[in-house]
Structure formats: C-alpha cells, structure tokens
Amino acid sequence: MLIALPPSEGKTAPTTGPALDLDLLSIQPFTDLRHELVRELETVSAGDNALDVLGVGATVRGEVEDQQHLSSLPCAPAHEVYTGVLYQAAEFSSLSEEEMARAGDSVLIFSGLFGATSPTDLIPRYRLKMGVKLPAGTPKARWRKLWHHLDERADGQLVIDARSSDYAGWSIPDSATHVKIGAVRETDGIRKVITHNAKYYRGLFTRLALTAQAVPTTADDLAHLGSEQPEIDAIELSGTGRNLTLTVVDREQAA
C-alpha cells in the first residue's frame, strides 16, 4: 500500500526542534534539487517583491520573511507541520507506534519544496507552490524529471491517491492499482462535487488504511473500510482495470 497526499496551505511553525537537514529526508535522489530550491526560496523571500513572486497575500508576510533563513528554522515531523482539513481528519498524532511505522513506510506527502516526504521527516513551515516561477524555473517543471524514482515503490501496490491536482505531477505506474478519492453531495438525485468534504474524506481514508487490522490491498478492501463508518452514507467505485475512483456520497434532502 502507498498513500499519496498533498501538503496543506495551513501550516504550524515549530517553535523548537532541529534545523533543516535535507540530507536526512526520505527519497535520497531528491536531495540535490531540494538544496537548490531551498537556496532559491531563501533568496526570493528576501526580495522586495517576495509576496508577488510567491503568489501569496500580506497576511503571510511574516512567514515569507522567516523563509529568508529557512535552513535554520526549527523543524518538526511533516504531519505536525501540515494542519489542514485532511491532516486533521487523518489524526497522525494519535496513531500507535506500530501505525506510525506503517505511515512512515507507506505515506508520501507531495510538495513544491521537498518533492515528496514521509510524514515523519523533519521540515520547517514554508510557502512554495508548485507553479511559482523561481530563478531556475518552477518546482513543477523541475520535479517532473525526478518523479520516476518513485515508480518502484508503487510497483504492484494499491496506491490511495488523495492528492489535489496541483500535486499530481507523478503519474502512478500502470503496475499499481490506482484509486483516487472524491466526494459528492447528492440532493434529490442531483450531485455536486464538494471540495472541502473531499479533503476530509481523504484524510479519513488515510487514517482508516493506517489503522486497519489488515493493510488494504485492493480498492474493495478500502471501500469496505469506509462502509463501516456511520458518517458515510454511501460509497461508489467506478473506473476500469487498475484506474479507479472511490466516491463518497453525502445524501441530504432538499429543504
């Protein structure tokens, strides 16, 4: 099993912890590009036009200013730094030692700065989207050349894909069973995609897969885990072969 997650816009800045050591992060073939991106992000963040370059608003000016010294900021496990809806639902911090070991082996968190990390890798708070135009090019274009290093990890595995489109640059190899997770709200037979709830359910299925007594190996296994949750009205599996979508259906009656 492999679980592919996006980062989150919401992040908590560690107040204590070691400084960033890129050489200790998972997936060693990504190390050189990580060094390049950190140096460029520190330089960009010190510029007068940093907010414009990074595509962020004045409310995070302090975060951007901190990035001038990104290499020396305190770090914490990635699952503690990311604090969005998905991560709240996944509840990594409440996992047992055995379950956290499973997470360390099977979860990849994709990001513009680090490419992909384990949830236990130590990182600082940062701001860098995949499409930001850094001096040497966007992270998206530069990571594209390195994604193939992940293919072996996915070979023959069930890949639970909870990534948003911005972080879906790595294409799951054909040898894997690829299951995307989505959510819709159905009102009197009319369906509407619900982005916020989709993030929640992606986090929930991450937790279910990590805490299951038996590791899910098929899309049906994953759907069964969800069907046992009282908060889920219905689950549908669609697609063909090894490319599937698991859709959570929230049903409500029109007023």
UniProtKB/TrEMBL annotation:
GO terms for cellular component: cytosol. It holds the Pfam family H2O2_YaaD. Coiled coil: none annotated. One of its GO terms (biological process) is response to hydroperoxide. This is Peroxide stress protein YaaA.
